[in-house]
Amino acid sequence: INKTMVLDPNERLTASQACRHPWLHQSTNIASSKNLHRTISQNLLQRQSQRANSTRSTKSVNSNKSSYSLRSDRRRVQPEDIDELHRDPEVQAELASLGSHHSNCS
């Protein structure tokens, strides 16, 4: 990924070179794809949680929760939250588009 973001076009990895990279050609199966989707889902949920917590903390200075408690809430993503996110049609469409981008590189 870093090699595709190099400013100098002569040193930058092209899209076709990136698609031929061994990382993309490793034997993949449904489980590894699902784990990738789960990781993406966890990141989405963590960002949503961070936004909600920062909004909540700015609105309420005298919160009953300590700052440590708020930080630990942000880190915890429950499996049922991820499963619920996977049932969301918009998220399913995003994950499908990620899968199609990956298959276009083969």
Automatic annotation (TrEMBL):
Region spans: Disordered: 46-106
Compositional bias annotation for Polar residues: 46-70
Biased composition, class Basic and acidic residues, residue ranges: 71-90
Descriptive protein name: Protein kinase domain-containing protein
Gene that encodes it: ORF47504
